[in-house]
Design brief:
single chain, 147 residues, alpha+beta, four-stranded antiparallel beta sheet, 4 helices, 29% strand
Length: 147
């Protein structure tokens, strides 16, 4: 999943949250961090090449997010003993909280500066990674911290 898609998903989820009623003071939980999971199926013969990508630009973006206080943690998880239709990898990114549009755009500009790229080039690169992998699903979860 490219970063722009992650940002769009976060914005959509944020707007959904705004429509929910405010938590009552006597609620038994508080909202916690938000997790994004991307299910990745690696094309035959491309596992090492895709892992190289994850270990370079993908990791750089995650580390920048941690430095900026946006990302709490990130993980690359291998799916063992797969059943039909399950991914090879799950990319998990935990963020502190949803960002508004201005925050998303500011972070995107920092990514572009760090990678010496722009949104159009990132979009092309994401398309080229299609030869290595297929994004077969996404999931977004928010932790509910029990009081």
């Amino acid at each position: 999943m490219n970063f722009k898609a992650t940002l769009c998903a976060a914005a959509a989820a944020f707007s959904l949250c705004l429509s929910l009623p405010a938590l009552a003071e006597d609620s038994s939980y508080t909202p916690g961090s938000v997790w994004f999971f991307s299910n990745i199926q690696i094309e035959p013969g491309h596992f090492e090449k895709y892992m190289d990508y994850l270990g370079t630009n993908w990791k750089k973006v995650q580390e920048l997010g941690k430095k900026e206080g946006i990302i709490v943690s990130y993980h690359v998880l291998a799916v063992n003993a797969q059943r039909h239709g399950e991914p090879d990898l799950v990319l998990a990114v935990e963020i502190k909280d949803y960002q508004n549009n201005a925050q998303q755009l500011a972070f995107q500009k920092k990514i572009e500066a760090m990678l010496a790229t722009d949104t159009r080039k990132q979009d092309v690169a994401a398309g080229e990674r299609g030869a290595m992998r297929k994004l077969i699903g996404n999931m977004q979860l928010q932790e509910l911290i029990l009081k």
